[in-house]
Structures are given as C-alpha cells and as structure tokens.
Write a structure and sequence with these properties.
About 60% of the residues lie in helices and about 0% in strands. The protein has about 350 residues and is mainly α. It is globular and about 50 Å long.
C-alpha cells in the first residue's frame, strides 16, 4: 500500500517537497567534486546540477562574494515560501527557527549596525541600532517592542554597551528562547500525537522535535563548557547558561559546571549518550557532526513536521560547507574535508 503524506491535509504537499529536496542534499563525493574546481565559474556550473539550481537562476556570479550571497538569498527565499504558507504548529516551528536567527542578528548588529540588511534574521527594528549609544537606548528602540523583551527580564546588562559580554547575552537569549519554545509545545502536547490548539489533526506530529530540541540543549551545554574552560567563569555562572531543555543527567550537568580542562570534559562526555563525538579529534567538529546525524534522522520519521525544521538547518550547514570549498579550492583535498561537516 502506498504511503501518503498527511492525507488530504494542507501540509502534505510541503512534506512531500521537503522529502524530495532532502534527497538532493550534497554528499561527500559532491564536495570532493567541487573541491576539484578550477574557478568560481566551475563551482557554479557544478551546483547548477544540484538542489541549488533554483538559487542560482538568473543570478550573475563573478566571485566568491556573489556566490555566497546568491546561496544565502536563495535559502532565505525558500524558507520564507514555507513560512508564509504555514500556520498553526508548523508556523510555530518555523518561527522558532526564524527567531533564533533574529537573536543572532541582534547580537551581531550591536557591533555591526551598518551591515546591509540581507540576512534571514534581520528585522526592521534593528535599523535603530545605528542610533543607539547605550543599552538603555537599545532597550527603548528595539527590545521593548519585540519578542526579545520577555527574555531580557532575566538578563542584567551594563548601560555602557562595550561593558557587556555579548556572547554571554547571546547564550542567555538562546537558552530562554529554547526553553520558551519547548515549554509552550509541551503544554500543548505537540510532542505527543494528540490534538491541541496548534495541532488540529492527530496526524500532524512533532514527536521527533522533542529529540531535536533536547539535543540542541545538551550540545549547547557541552559547547558552553568547551568555550569557557580557560576563563574565570564560576561553576554557578556557567550552570546559569545551561538550557534546562536537555537529556543530560543532573549529575553530569553538575560535573560539567565544574569542568576545568579538556581532558575532564572528554571523560565526562564519555559517560553520556554523546560519547560518539569523541571519535573526532576536534570536539567542536564532533558536536556539529552529531547534530547533523540527528537532523538527518528526521527524514526517516514519517509524517512528522520536524523534518521541515531539520531541512533548513541542513541547508545552512551546506552553504557553510560550500564557503569552505571556495576557501580551499586548489589546495589539498584532505585539509578541506576536515572543515566540511556532512553525513553520508
């Protein structure tokens, strides 16, 4: 009997599109072929025969900057098509994706307010950063009238912008955003196959998103430890940055909060379900590969809208990989592939 995507449902066609597009994701052999290119023009020609053909259509590309811009804008356009057609739980899911980017744009543009407003995470209030001279003005111009307001209730900042650690603020914003999204979906039962105000038919499932979000939280915790090992952060302050959405045991989180060396971190990770990241020489690479594996598994979960979120996460990684291909074009393949994160 032939399977059908969400029978007679508005999301059926979208899911079919995503599963079809997922089969066009780039493989290691494709990246190796791109690395053998002699020029940007050669890379563009090869990408024309992949899922990026629509991104590059009617676009003049003469250099690396043009190519990356075309890919970024193509992804933005593809995402917005899905976003504008969605509602209910899929709209909430894609809003979570979008607001994550908006948080990143907010933090980045505090230091770079003059950047051209082309990225997915740009929102119009960010234009006011050009005129903000203090955090009080940032709050007044941007934060108080956007989704950021509820997250800043728990963040203490210095009025002098330069006195703030923006990476800590970013970590806290992403933590609160993850927790907020997870809790709202838990309360509405969307991680279970049952009806709710967002989920008007039982076949609309976000069951796998529970796994994805807990993975995001757990890997974020490990990355926080990795990035703060050689700093003066206290165990308490480090623990404050840990998302409550994760699948690490309390005893493991306590050990991680007190971790003081890479060797200690590796020993702690060995005790968790994330021990496979240790097979990679670089821990950060291991974390990224693990997450990609989790994202890819969404395509094996039938009729689960989580795959839409995972698809766009994977496309973002592909564009990062293509950027590395351009950087390493003409160099030794082995060195380049170490920086290209993919799962075959």
């Amino acid at each position: 009997m032939q399977l059908e995507y969400l029978d007679n449902d508005k999301y059926g066609f979208m899911l079919s599109q995503i599963h079809t597009s997922s089969k066009l994701l780039l493989t290691k052999s494709m990246y190796k072929s791109l690395l053998q290119s002699d020029s940007i023009e050669d890379i563009v020609i090869k990408l024309q025969s992949t899922g990026y053909s629509s991104y590059l259509k009617d676009t003049k590309i003469t250099d690396k900057k043009d190519l990356i811009k075309a890919l970024d804008q193509g992804l933005k356009k593809e995402f917005m098509i899905f976003y504008e057609k969605s509602d209910c739980c899929l709209k909430a899911l894609l809003t979570f994706f979008l607001r994550t980017h908006q948080i990143e744009s907010f933090i980045y543009r505090i230091s770079n307010p003059e950047e051209v407003d082309e990225e997915l995470g740009f929102f119009v209030e960010l234009l006011s950063l050009k005129f903000a001279k203090s955090f009080k003005e940032i709050y007044s111009f941007i934060i108080k009238d956007t989704f950021l307001k509820k997250y800043f209730k728990n963040i203490i900042v210095e009025d002098e912008i330069e006195q703030n650690n923006m990476q800590i603020i970013k970590r806290k914003l992403l933590k609160y955003h993850l927790e907020d999204f997870y809790n709202s979906f838990q309360n509405d039962g969307l991680f279970l196959q049952k009806e709710s105000e967002y989920n008007d038919i039982k076949s609309e499932s976000l069951q796998y998103m529970d796994t994805v979000l807990k993975t995001i939280g757990s890997l974020s915790i490990i990355e926080i430890v990795l990035n703060t090992i050689h700093t003066k952060i206290t165990p308490f302050k480090r623990m404050e940055l840990f998302p409550t959405v994760n699948d690490l045991k309390p005893s493991i989180r306590q050990l991680l909060s007190n971790c003081t060396s890479i060797d200690d971190l590796r020993n702690i990770i060995q005790k968790t379900s994330y021990s496979s990241v240790l097979k990679h020489k670089d821990l950060l690479t291991g974390l990224h590969i693990y997450f990609l594996e989790v994202l890819y598994r969404s395509f094996t979960t039938f009729n689960d809208l989580t795959c839409v979120f995972c698809y766009f996460q994977l496309k973002e990684q592909e564009i990062k990989n293509i950027s590395w291909v351009i950087e390493f074009m003409g160099n030794e393949e082995h060195n380049a592939m170490e920086n290209i994160h993919t799962v075959d």
